[in-house]
């Protein structure tokens, strides 16, 4: 039997190998009945048109993983398979299936079933049963097509737990003893070489992105989340031997690594500290200290463990900041989204954020149910006050999340839209507008209007430029030293920006319209004359500051917050790219303190600060965006004069 497993662009970046393919094939090898009779294959990260060309023999079964980033590709591929191999049954799994209403998939006649939850057990049974010519009604987790409907399965798919790992003692779990990574190590490395090394432009990163999980499941149930069917489930951890051998394989073999540790709550177990120590040891052993990007989603309520992990990994990882997930600092919003987490101030102290300043950025979700424009603004300002960089992530609605249930939609008066264009923010360095996705967003609900939503998206970008990219951040931090909060500082600036149509030389109503077009007319996000509005803002800020009245206006608004506000604003605005690169000197009682603090400190005597403004070019916005994550860039732009 030819079995094809394909799930291109499963996440917002590509892993350069198909985890689905290796996982399901390995599961079948261990627990299926007819491995010798099966011939498994997959396809690379390519378009549906290219993929169908590569399928030259009729598959007996096709398994496809459907995710927001590949939905259009997968559905096109379903059509092409239907034309080329009309008798081949297709089974879909993945987060993009709305099990509240799977009817949209019925029109694809060759989709034989939809798999809900973890796929290992259902996929194995599907292969066995089709091999034996049996029907599929008993397969757990499988919505089988019957005529013009999909039948709800009698039983959910059992979840995977690991032999000798940490996990539930009883309940409906299927114990596995293999590591698909270790069993397929050579093939996976070959795939990475072929898919990344020979074609690096396909990746959004300039590094080899590798995601890895030490656990599955999440005990929490945030309403906006569905994590592969894994929310509200018991956490199951691999055995320590497997964790250590898998990590050895990764850190030994993959250079220029972006290591994404995919656990929903790393640090939830004290054993995760051992894992962190093992990672640190491996980085030293393979001479990779300071060279590997590490991204981790930390546990929400185990701050002592997490603080230990941060201390262990800080000396060995690259300067890429840690990301902390806070989502909102408003307790009412957190209650509304059923989010369990400690307050930002508590987290800030535990992780010593103020001492490490730019080594952290904090994820906040934009436009969550329960929020308002002002609550979101307050959240961003609280994050600034805690000493962290901000990373705003617009709320999406995964089809399997609680937010997409008919009850939630009714109660919250949720109004959604679907876009093929990702929301491009300067946090996500791929700010160029892309249309390979299909993502559901909420543009209004009972706590905010569409106009609020649009303002949230615009002002978030403005603040990321002003504060995240260090244009007004130096001044804001001085104001903080005098007891003013970031909210005190930014609120009047934001009010003026929203009220004064042309204050910064950009027409805010034109920006609003560009976002409305994205919501209601299927246009790219925030595009004006072929560029994203943030780029216009960036260009206009310099002009408005030095040639128009912006400097005086800002002094009028915040000048009273610190006596050195004017030179601090000058330093920040001088870092902006200008038509011709230029180095300027600014004399003030201020000195620049390098990363990780990246701030201006008051001095007793006058000092000369040197600011290097680079020449504006096509990718200037990307360069400015990079400042959010790489504070050493600021060290290259601002320095104290050394004769
Ligand atoms: S957002 Fe994170 S903590 Fe909340 S349910 Fe999802 S995985 Fe769990």
Walk me through the structure.
The chain has 23 helices and 24 strands. With 643 residues, it is an alpha/beta fold. The protein has a domain at 2-157: Rossmann fold (3-Layer(aba) Sandwich). The strands form 8 sheets. The chain has a 7-stranded mixed beta sheet with strand order 2-1-3-4-5-6-7. It has a 3-stranded parallel beta sheet with strand order 10-13-14, with no helix packed on it. A 3-stranded parallel beta sheet has the order 15-16-17. Helix 7 runs parallel beside helix 8 (271-285) and helix 16 packs antiparallel against helix 21. The mean pLDDT is 91. It binds iron/sulfur cluster. The site of iron/sulfur cluster has 9 residues, from loops.
Question: What are the defining features of this structure?
Answer:
23 helices; single chain; 3-stranded parallel sheet; 643 residues; binds iron/sulfur cluster; 24 strands; 7-stranded mixed sheet; Rossmann fold; alpha/beta; 38% helix
């Amino acid at each position: 039997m030819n079995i094809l497993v394909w799930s291109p662009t499963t996440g917002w970046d590509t892993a350069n190998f198909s985890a689905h393919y290796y996982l399901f094939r390995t599961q079948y090898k261990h627990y299926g009945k007819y491995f010798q009779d099966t011939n498994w294959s997959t396809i690379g990260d390519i378009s549906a048109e290219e993929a169908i060309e590569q399928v030259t023999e009729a598959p007996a079964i096709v398994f496809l993983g459907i995710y927001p980033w590949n939905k259009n590709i997968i559905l096109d591929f379903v059509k092409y398979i239907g034309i080329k191999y009309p008798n081949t049954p297709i089974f879909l799994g993945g987060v993009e299936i709305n099990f509240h209403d799977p009817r949209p998939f019925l029109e694809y006649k060759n989709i034989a079933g939809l798999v809900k939850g973890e796929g290992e057990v259902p996929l194995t049974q599907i292969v066995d049963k089709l091999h034996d010519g049996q029907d599929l009604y008993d397969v757990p987790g499988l919505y089988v097509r019957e005529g013009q409907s999909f039948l709800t399965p009698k039983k959910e798919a059992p979840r995977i737990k690991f032999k000798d790992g940490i996990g539930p003692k009883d309940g409906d779990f299927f114990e596995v003893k293999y590591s698909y990574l270790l069993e397929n190590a050579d093939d996976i490395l070959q795939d990475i070489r072929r898919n990344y090394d020979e074609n690096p432009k396909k990746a959004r990163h300039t590094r080899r992105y590798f995601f890895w999980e030490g656990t599955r499941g999440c005990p929490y149930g945030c309403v906006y989340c569905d994590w592969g069917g894994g929310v509200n489930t018991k956490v199951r951890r691999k055995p320590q031997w497997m964790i250590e051998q898998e990590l050895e394989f990764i850190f030994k073999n993959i250079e220029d690594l972006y290591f994404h540790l995919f656990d929903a709550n790393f640090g939830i177990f004290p054993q995760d500290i051992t894992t962190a120590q093992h990672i640190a040891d491996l980085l030293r052993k393979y001479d990779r200290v300071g060279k590997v990007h590490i991204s981790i989603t930390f546990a929400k309520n185990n701050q002592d463990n997490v603080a230990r992990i941060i201390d262990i990994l800080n000396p060995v990882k690259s300067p890429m900041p840690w990301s902390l997930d806070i989502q909102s600092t408003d307790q009412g919003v957190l209650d509304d989204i059923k989010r369990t987490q400690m307050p930002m101030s508590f987290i800030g102290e535990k992780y010593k954020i103020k001492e490490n300043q730019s080594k952290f950025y904090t994820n906040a979700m934009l436009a969550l149910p329960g929020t308002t424009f002002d609550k979101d603004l307050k959240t961003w300002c609280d994050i600034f006050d805690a000493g962290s960089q901000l990373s705003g992530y617009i709320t999406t609605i995964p089809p399997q999340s609680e937010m997409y249930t008919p009850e939630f939609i009714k109660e919250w008066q949720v109004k959604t839209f679907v876009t093929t264009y990702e929301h491009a923010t300067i946090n996500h360095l791929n700010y160029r507008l892309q249309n390979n996705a299909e993502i559901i967003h909420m543009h209004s609900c009972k706590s905010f209007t569409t106009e609020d939503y649009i303002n949230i998206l615009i002002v978030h970008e403005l603040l990321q430029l002003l504060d995240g990219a260090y244009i007004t951040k130096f001044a804001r931090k001085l104001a903080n030293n005098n007891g003013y909060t970031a909210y005190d500082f930014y609120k009047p600036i934001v009010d003026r920006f929203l009220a004064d149509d042309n204050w910064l030389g950009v027409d805010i109503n034109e920006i609003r319209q560009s976002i409305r077009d994205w919501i209601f007319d299927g246009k790219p996000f925030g595009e004006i004359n072929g560029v994203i509005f943030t780029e216009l803002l960036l260009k206009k800020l310099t002009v408005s500051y030095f040639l128009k009245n912006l400097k005086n206006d800002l002094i009028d608004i915040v000048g009273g917050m610190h006596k050195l506000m004017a030179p601090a604003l000058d330093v920040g605005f001088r870092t902006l790219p200008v038509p011709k690169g230029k180095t300027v000197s600014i004399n003030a009682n201020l000195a620049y303190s390098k990363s990780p603090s990246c701030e201006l400190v008051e001095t007793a005597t006058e000092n000369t600060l040197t600011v290097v403004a680079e020449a504006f070019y096509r990718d200037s916005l990307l360069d400015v965006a990079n400042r959010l994550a790489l504070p050493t860039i600021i060290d290259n732009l601002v320095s104290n004069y050394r004769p």
